[in-house]
Amino acid sequence: MGREGFASARGDLARGYDREMNQPLVTVATFTTAVEGNLAKGCLQAAGIPAFLKDGGMAVHLTHALGAVTLQVVEDDAEDAREILRLAAELER
User: Fold this and answer.
1) CATH code at 32?
2) In a domain, 53, yes or no
3) Distance in angstroms (rounded) separating the CA atoms of residues 15 and 12
4) Helix, strand or coil for residue 26?
5) Is 5 a domain residue?
6) What phi, psi does 32 have (nearest 5°)?
7) Domain total of the chain
8) Could you report the per-residue pLDDT of 3-20, keeping only the tens digit for each?
9) Rounded-to-integer distance, Cα 81 and Cα 51, Å
10) Cα 68 to chain center, whole Å?
11) What is the DSSP string of 5-66?
């Protein structure tokens, strides 16, 4: 992909996030580590749901102790995101 194609694709992605970001973010899951959170985030993004991790601004040792890594999506995607995460958890068993 040339520079123009990449810039165009980036612009399309940014416009999609801008449109969705007019909605509040809601927490759909909480994790004890950033690794777990990133795996779940990737699962949602693979399904076409933009997802965001929030660490609560804590030190790493507190994040592990308190489970402060949260996975958030826009409100309209919350129900689908929770269902995808539930199905992914079932596959792990």
Assistant:
1) 3.30.70.1530
2) yes
3) 5
4) strand
5) no
6) -85, -20
7) 1
8) 454 444 444 444 455 555
9) 9
10) 14
11) HHHHHHHHHHHHHHHHTTSPEEEEEEESSHHHHHHHHHHHHHTT---EEE-TT--HHHHHHH
